[in-house]
Amino acid sequence: MKILIASNSCWNLYNFRKDLISTLISKKYKIIIAAPYDEYLSKIFKENLIFCPIYLKKNKKSFFSDLFCLLQFIYIIQKHRPSYSLAFTIKPNIYCSIATLFSKTKMINNITGLGSALIKNNLFSKIIFFIYRLTLYRSYKVVFQNKSDMNIFINKKITNIYNSNLIPGSGININKYNNQILTNNNIFTFLYVGRLIKDKGIVEYLEAAEIVKSKTSKNIKFVVLGSFDKKNPNSIDFKYFESFIDKEIINYLGFVDNPIPVISDSSCVVLPSYREGLSRSLLESMALGKPIITTNVAGCDELVRESSNGFLCKVQNKYDLAEKMFSILNLKKEEVMKMGEKGKQIIQTEYSNEIVINKYLQLIY
Fold this sequence. Notes:
Layout: E1 2-6, H1 10-16, H2 18-26, E2 30-35, H3 41-44, E3 49-53, H4 63-80, E4 84-88, H5 90-100, E5 106-111, H6 115-118, H7 123-135, E6 141-144, H8 147-155, E7 164-166, H9 174-178, E8 188-193, H10 202-215, E9 220-225, H11 238-246, E10 251-252, H12 260-264, E11 268-271, H13 280-287, E12 292-295, E13 310-313, H14 318-329, H15 333-350, H16 353-363
């Protein structure tokens, strides 16, 4: 049986779907990857895998380039005739859904997050939801990572309770994190992991860090790990960001392929995001036994058991975020470690690779 897996980059598939692809191949499914080529293809390429490069610019709005991408999906599906098609990210979800209208391929859409822009009642969000309503109406299954996103689609009559499915993220390989050496130093380190865009809460993190540093004499450090997304209109202003480096409020490490060693060196991971699908950086942090501080919004709130494995703060509120940072700073070292262990248990029982992959296998029969 052939299965098409489509995404906006090989990087995305490597970071979030590598284990799913490996499992499907081990079960003798023939996998067809449709994505723009990048260097991460070699890290997921195996026997019994066909790669179909597509022309897709995720941040580019062009009728002709989008039409060409759609025609490529139609060609791929007509040529390979997969039994199932799994699409991830917005454009592959839309174009792949249209392409399957002309085939017997069962479409499985994956809504990995709406983003704060899509929940606003503006022209852009209305257009996207209208397109989703047109393209997802005959999908075999639509997979969501949190209940809030699923309820929005059901209420807007884009999907229904029968074809909507909840799968907890992309799965965490517990074994990958169990062997990590956790540091034990005297500097309490807060870590932000994510793109440097406003919707991720980077501004609130910087300003809360400044508040905390000005009000305590404790030996603390604030670290930022992530890349600038210059093409994103919500990208943080570089000079503004740089001012916090100059004032020695934060240490900036840039972008790394593997954030695990940096997370291991931290004491607490902070993500004041405005909305998530299901935050990968928070899941990885919990798997490494780190307490987390995040916002009380969809895709973040369900990961926190308040005061047990972390704290929830109000969205877009630097003062409340700073207050939660003080809350964890005032805990004893043993209490912080206990919070981290609780997070690890949550990952093992609710978000492991085995749980996620088994749910996908149940959709493909």
